[in-house]
Amino acid sequence: MTSPPDPRRGPWSLWRLIAMCYVALLVVSNTVRLIDPPKRVLSPGQLSISLPVPGRDAGSDATATVAYRDLGPADAAPILLVHGTPVASRAVEPLARQLAAKYRVIVPDMPGFGASEMHIPDYSYATHGVYMQALLDALEITSVHAVGYSQGGGVILSLADQAPERVRSLAMVSAIGVLELELLGDYHANRAVYAAQYGLIVGAKWLLPHFGVLDDMVLSVPYARNLLDSDQRLLRDALEGYAGDMLITHGRSDGFVPLEAALEHHRLVTRSELVLFDGGHLIPIFEPARIAAAIVPFIDRVEAGEALFDATLLAERRQQAAEPFDWSTVQAFSGIRLAVMLLLLAVATYVSEDLACIAAGLLVARGMLEFFPAVGACLVGIFTGDVLLYLGGRLFGAAAVSRAPIRWLVSAERLAQSRAWFERRGAVVLLVSRFVPGTRVPSYVAAGVLGMSIWRFSALLLLAGAIWTPLIVGLAWAAGSSALPMIESYQRYGLAIAVGIAALLWLALRVVLPIFGERGKRWLQVGAASRQSESR
């Protein structure tokens, strides 16, 4: 007699085989990576030095190896040239050689990049500023003209803020500096984008069998940590407090750091010159002679002690710098920048849906986005993220509850009862969970585990999202900068408030209302009869 076919075989056995092969490849890949990690190799002409690692967690004797180039005449005025991310010093080496025709140029690989130490406790601009001080100490250089390209602008601003006596002048080359013009313009929303990027890069590093290929990719873990660890809010204070001479060069069509950032830097620093070029963010890399032609005369004048600004102009500039940031000076997103911003909003929802909606509302309030595209981007991100939670429960949750040890705790009968209950009341649960923080993830995963129809689930999500998303974006639009503290309070206390309301409703329905109904009358009659019997 032929036994019935085993339902676990067939396509499922093929998927099991594929999964086992993938896990085996992953184990071998990570073993190879750990046994033979990428080696930091100095390029021809590079030097290296061990510097103390700042921070309480590093230990008093911890050091990090920093690679650098020392170009130009040794007795000339020194320039510290700091690269951006995710590139290393090789990207700005052509500019360094242009400057080295007259000045001594120190070009380090920031820790985490190039041939320098890859693994450090903190990759922020502020910490990199401390590393630069240590490098200058080691090279016995008392002060420098600091030049920062792109994200390197954050490093030299931190250096000038931490040790102003060590900076003779600053040159901001297509550089970042003010939070309002960084990504979504809000610190917490930007952190959500950076956290999502960091999670994606770390996940690819450890969950893809790449045998070390991704370890040397440009978009590395240190690059993602550099953005995640840095607080650009501090740079506005550094700009406002900088009293020295500054040169600002920027491309008019820069797609990475908007032109408005350079204009704001120029407004905040009273002793600053602004030089604009036709071109984008990569001018310093591909046309370094154009940038050097602006930097060299600037440093010449500073070295000669020439007055770059007269007293009348300085007075006018101080008055301009005292004014608050004017969002009307920033152009609304359009073209590629608009598409990128909408994509970033959608990605930010994977980390915090509410925060992304608030950021969208603030951008609408500032005139950077239209209301409906902002809502649409957030809704797409929220919907896709929630469907992924459902699919996670559907694909992995059901298998988990059917195996030990979970099946010892959850019987098949109990699971069937829960599935039936969710079929009856799941719609209400899903709709309510959208408005109660702390209940969304378990509700959506439970819907997948209990086998709710994906079409019904999707329809309910779209309905709830279509109410929630424009509501939060609209409230943030109306409330402006006060929206963030409001939503933080809501997220902190929303679940407790919802539980309290539910408890009050239960008391009202189960205790208070019956008192005034037939049950209350019976209680009164029983009480009266009891008192009469006691009096006898």
SSE topology:
Blueprint: H1 11-35, E1 47-52, E2 63-71, E3 78-82, H2 93-99, E4 104-108, H3 125-138, E5 144-149, H4 152-162, E6 167-173, H5 187-207, H6 221-229, H7 233-241, E7 245-251, H8 259-268, E8 272-277, H9 283-286, H10 288-304, H11 311-321, H12 335-348, H13 353-365, H14 371-401, H15 406-409, H16 412-433, H17 440-449, H18 454-479, H19 483-515, H20 518-535
Parallel strand pairs: 3-4, 3-5, 5-6, 6-7, 7-8
Antiparallel strand pairs: 1-2, 2-4
Helix pairs in contact: 2-10, 3-4, 4-7, 5-6, 5-12, 12-14, 13-14, 13-18, 14-17, 14-18, 16-17, 16-18
- Helical stretch count? 20
Helical amount:
55-70%
Order of the strands making up the biggest sheet: 1-2-4-3-5-6-7-8
- What is the C-alpha radius of gyration, as a whole number of Å? 31 Å
Roughly what fraction of the amino acids lie in strands? 5-15%
Give start-end ranges of low-pLDDT stretches: none
Order of secondary-structure elements: HEEEHEHEHEHHHEHEHHHHHHHHHHHH
Report the strand count. 8
Mean pLDDT: 83
**Overall form:** globular
